[in-house]
Design a protein that fits this description.
This protein is of the alpha/beta class. It has one domain: 3-Layer(aba) Sandwich (Rossmann fold), CATH 3.40.50. Helices cover 37% and strands 24% of the residues. The strands form 2 sheets. Strands 6-7-8-3-9-10 form a 6-stranded mixed beta sheet, sandwiched between helices. Strands 2-1-4-5 form a 4-stranded antiparallel beta sheet, covered by helices on one side. A hairpin with a 2-residue loop joins strand 1 and strand 2 (23-33). Helix 3 packs parallel to helix 5. It is globular. 41% of the residues are buried. It binds adenosine-5'-diphosphate (ADP) and magnesium ion (MG). Magnesium ion binds next to helix 1. Pfam families: ABC_tran (PF00005). Keywords: Amino-acid transport, ATP-binding, Cell membrane, Membrane, Nucleotide-binding, Transport. It comes from Rhodococcus ruber BKS 20-38. It is found in: Cell membrane.
Length: 247
């Protein structure tokens, strides 16, 4: 499936710290994704994976550290601008139930990018075609399966022509038989040259699609490397223990 990647850029977070009160959720996290590559972040629940994504797109401001897109710090930019450059897909798709599928996708390009309604709809149909759901353009999200809704959410993010895509447990809420289609779409995006950071419990995806795997625990990166290094030769006891629980 061809996908449109306007220009992929690298993303770097260095020395990222964030505390919620006394809870030090990120304790100096370094992460780097080369342009067009996929980094998968794995780790136990509560280790700070979602918070890391939210800091990287400045939904939370880090207490310390820097964020660079394409090698340039973005901390002084308008956060809204950064969020337009980074597409985000969550566990829960958050589609507007009273709008059609095409309207859900056209909304951002129309409201945030100033495309006319007609052009925004044409773009929505194009994106829907890429995720194999053009025939659902005028349906309500509630009439689609969870997997289809998640593909719409991905199309919605892609319609904003992001330079980087984040996925936070995008398949965790799906019935098992619907997971594959969404993972296949994510794999297509990765091979199409999108820069991606993927938080997932799908170890098969982490192993086969990602260029680099990051293992987090207690707000810190414990190990990072190529999938085969981390999965076949984990160096730390913490990663060995984590893998023995999830594999
Ligand atoms: P993960 O995604 O790895 O499961 P999270 O990033 O969601 O972990 O959470 C890491 C820690 O940060 C948890 O202790 C969680 O309670 C805390 N946390 C996350 N978001 C907030 C928030 N908005 N306010 C306070 N604490 C939070
Ligand atoms: Mg999470």
């Amino acid at each position: 499936m061809p996908t449109t990647v306007p220009e992929s850029v690298s993303l770097t977070g260095t020395g990222l710290h964030l505390a919620f009160g006394t809870n030090r959720v990120l304790r100096g996290v370094d992460i780097h994704v080369d342009a067009g590559k996929t980094v998968t972040v794995v780790g136990p629940s509560g280790s700070g994976k979602s918070t890391l994504l939210r800091v990287l797109n400045r939904l939370h401001e880090p207490d310390a550290g820097d964020i660079l897109l394409d090698g340039r710090s973005v901390l002084k930019d308008n956060p809204d601008e950064l969020r337009q450059r980074i597409g985000m897909v969550f566990q829960h798709f958050n589609l507007f139930p009273h709008k059609t599928v095409a309207e859900n996708i056209a909304l951002g390009p129309h409201k945030l990018k100033g495309l006319s309604k007609e052009r925004a709809r044409a773009l929505a149909l194009e994106q829907l075609d890429l995720v194999g759901l053009k025939h659902k353009a005028d349906s309500r999200p509630g009439n689609l399966s969870g997997g289809q809704q998640q593909r719409v959410a991905i199309a919605r993010a892609l319609a904003m022509a992001p330079q980087v895509m984040f996925f936070d447990e995008a398949t965790s809420a799906l019935d098992p038989e619907l997971v594959k289609g969404v993972l296949a779409l994510m794999a297509d995006l990765a091979s199409g040259g999108m820069t991606m950071v993927v938080v997932t419990h799908e170890m098969g995806f982490a192993r086969s699609v990602s260029d680099t795997v990051v293992f987090m625990d207690h707000g810190a990166v414990v190990e990072t490397g190529a999938p085969e290094e981390l999965f076949d030769a984990p160096k730390t006891e913490r990663l060995q223990q984590f893998l023995s629980q999830v594999l």
